[in-house]
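Supplementary Note 3. Input sequence used for the single-chain structure prediction.
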Amino acid sequence: MEKSNGERVILFPTPLQGCINPMLQLANILHSRGFSITVIHMRFNAPKASAHPLFTFVQIPDGLSETQINDDPTSDVMSFVAQININAESPFRDCLQKLMLQESERVNII
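The predicted structure, written as discrete structure tokens, is reproduced below.
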């Protein structure tokens, strides 16, 4: 690992198949360039924090019921994404404000 450059990248991947892994690959590249990494995620399709011990993971509420989580979201992707966007707006904003207030590093958001 390279020395920290004093900057933190906050990533918020869409919790769908094919979105999280590329975002984590980008996070690995950025981390190798000295960035500290924070990943904001939801309970649905959450990344494995144990696979990335050098990253900070913060879970926000997704507002989904157990039925919605267990159902196949690909059956109606547009509806699912719309619901996630609505449910995540306020928790994401609150989480981001909290992270930015406690960070001593410069924050970049992806």
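DSSP finds three helices and four strands in the chain. Residues 7-109 form a domain with the Rossmann fold fold (CATH 3.40.50.2000).
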